Amino acid sequence: EAGVTQSPTHLIKTRGQQATLRCSPISGHTSVYWYQQALGLGLQFLLWYDEGEERNRGNFPPRFSGRQFPNYSSELNVNALELEDSALYLCASSLEGEGVKLFFGSGTQLSVL
Amino acid sequence: AQSVTQPDIHITVSEGASLELRCNYSYGATPYLFWYVQSPGQGLQLLLKYFSGDTLVQGIKGFEAEFKRSQSSFNLRKPSVHWSDAAEYFCAVDFREGSYIPTFGRGTSLIVHP
Predict the structure, then answer these.
(1) B42 CB contacts (<8 Å, ≥6 apart)?
(2) Residue among B32, B105, B107 minimizing CB distance to A100
């Protein structure tokens, strides 16, 4: 069974550009979570999608947005990139109702220059 | 506000020694509790979880954790550490308050000396 896959593995952008990160959940999982892992800050919750709907978002500005497609894959968009957006972005999927046991991808390392 | 505290940023142990990583959370009810491990360049892998029942839970790779309600703690333990255990460890708490969003601690980096 394929795990959670994220692409690209690495992404280098400059300030003011836009970044798009992609995530494919485990087959059968309907929920997708996005977390930002900045150096020394642990995991900060960004967004939660389930059944195509945004269910919750963390304390991040509106330039962080995303969506979930009918096949449950998801996309995270970061507009007007700032230097402090440099981080590892982790996607996780889960089966709703399983007490939120998360399965994580390996992440996208975003570097903003 | 709900929070998860891992008071140790780094822990250094010798191979074969015992290990305890601390985790405390700030809430009175009984949440769902998790420990994850992150090896360099990898995503997070679930080590173990506690939902209810026996407060001592066994996980993968020889890890265990004990839920202590009175102390709002969920400490991770391993009796004998292997060099391959060197990684970042994250405690996570689902406070079960409608949003079902796990809150993560900042992580503890485990260094294993030969």
Answers:
(1) A106
(2) B32
B17 to chain A nearest CA, in Å?
26
Q: Cβ of A34 under 8 Å from any chain B Cβ? A: no
d(CA A62, CA A91): 19
Q: In b/e form, how buried is each residue of B66-82, taking b as 16+ CB within 10 angstroms?
A: bbeeeebbbbbebeebe
pLDDT for position B74: 96
Which residues on chain B place their C-beta less than 8 Å from a C-beta of chain A? 32, 34, 36, 41-46, 49, 51, 90, 92, 94, 99-107
Burial of B39 (0-12, 13-18, 19+ CB in 10 A): middle
By three-state DSSP, how is residue A85 classified? helix
Q: Which of B19-28, B51-60, B90-99 has the lowest mean pLDDT?
A: B90-99
**Confidence grade of residue A15 (pLDDT, cut at 50, 70, 90):** very high
A27 to A24, A47, A50, A107: CA distances (angstroms): 8, 20, 14, 18
Query: pLDDT-derived band of residue B40, with 50, 70 and 90 as boundaries?
Result: confident
- Report the residue of B95, B104, B109 to disrupt the A interface, i.e. the one with the largest count of A CBs within 10 Å: B104
Quick: pLDDT tens for A32-68. Answer: 999 999 987 889 999 999 889 998 899 999 999 999 9
Q: How far apart are CA B50 and CA A44, in angstroms?
A: 22
